[in-house]
Write a structure and sequence with these properties.
This protein has 414 residues and is an alpha/beta fold. It has 15 helices and 14 strands. A seven-stranded mixed beta sheet has the order 3-11-10-7-6-4-5, with helices on both faces. The chain has a three-stranded antiparallel beta sheet with strand order 9-8-12, with no helix packed on it. Strands 1-2 form a two-stranded parallel ribbon. It is globular. The structure holds pyridoxal-5'-phosphate.
Amino acid sequence: MYKIVYKKLLCSTRRAQQEENEIFSARYKNRKKEFYMEFRDLKQQYQLHKKQIDDAIQRVLTNTNFIQGSEVSHLEEVLAEYVGVKHCITCANGTDALQLALMTWNIGVGDAVFVPDFTFFSSGEVVTLVGATPIFVDIDEDTYNISPQSLEQAIQYVLEQTNLKPRVIIAVDLFGQPAEYEQIKKIAEKYHLLILEDGAQGFGGRIGTKKACSFGDISTTSFFPAKPLGCYGDGGALFTENDEWAELLRSYRVHGKGVDKYDNVRIGMNSRLDTIQAAVLLEKIKFFDWEVKKCNQVAEEYNKGLQGVVKAPVVKKGFVSSWAQYTVCFQNNKEREQVIKLLKEQNIPSAVYYRKPMHMQEAFRKYQYKGLEYKVTEKVCECCLSLPMHPYLNINVIKYIIAGVRKSLDIKTD
Ligand SMILES: *Cc1c(COP(=O)(O)O)cnc(C)c1O
């Protein structure tokens, strides 16, 4: 028994890819193999684009403009054009991006901010960081995004049962699929609320031709390495059409600067994107659309093999996901845990996003509201599982994973 070093499986030419497929098939058939599979393969991506990325980083090292170098403003132009929004303001990470937006809108004590109950911790954390109150909202059972019906119920609840002032809806583009902005916008208008699009997982997704990070009054994303568009450390960005907010965001991200960072007109943060990270992103954005397309092909293969076996992800008509995660649901927690264990025995990595609803996190204990229900989130947290998803998953590996899931459920694959 031996390990296939995954690096060896990597290839930049079609012939090598073919060879790799043959090697994999042979190993797959004799079923004695032991190999290493990445959940999201950043190594392969880097190997394929090593020269351009190394050169880009080297240029920054040579110029030594590590903070706010020309790559940063260049990247902001490129990203604004990509998303189709007037302003892009980069910052240190996706969490700061959310906080900067709330600071710009002067959200604070006494304000209610609506957040989906099923998301990464940041989406709610930032609300409390500015002193406001997060109101968690149940999700849609198909898309796992915030449920417009539950959202309206939660707003009514806050208006009738609390002294809080509803101010902002944080809509998360979970797992890569944009939230239902048409309905969310109607609700926002009805109750005079601002929309903050948390596109940390959604960058590269679309509704029709309109890109993710263009749906909020302010929208944010994260360049954490495993996100759809990742850099080589932490990074984030904000997007908006509004000139005044854009200027405020640029001030808040550098110590509330006025004319310069030694003229401080408000309390801000130190939240800049490093020049090296901007240089990496300027290279990675060049093949990003190709990667999103590949992820959609991977998702299609998964759907074909898993339809009827598990609850496969649902992408709404006219919506395009950037597939930050490919997340399926099993019958219940017991079945899920069994599958995780059996997949692991077959060297297939998997991950649970997310195990705990936001309203059940210890950190949010004091924000629990008796009048609100989270039935869908509670159910999904019990039975969801994310499978390996990235643009470099080859067809044989996808088939191996599908067979692995089926086998774990005692379903035959022919
Ligand atoms: C990753 C993530 C964030 C935070 O981004 P960081 O860059 O890690 O700070 C916020 N919201 C969601 C939904 C995320 O997935």
